[in-house]
Amino acid sequence: MWQGWQRYYIEGIKQSFGCGFTELVPEKHIARKWRFKSWPKGGFATITLTFVDRNGENELCLEG
Known about the structure:
alpha+beta, Alpha-D-Glucose-1,6-Bisphosphate, Chain A, domain 4, four-stranded antiparallel beta sheet, 4 strands, 23% helix, elongated
């Protein structure tokens, strides 16, 4: 499931936002810089998505 979601996520984001992954740990977390195309050149935000397995359920933590 992880690889399919990752592929979908990456392609969708590339169409709407600028992209730049800073760290990618499969099944653990994604850290990246991103920006809206309308933001001034050089303006980025950094976010981290952390995936936590909770006995068969997934928890997604977003930090930015």
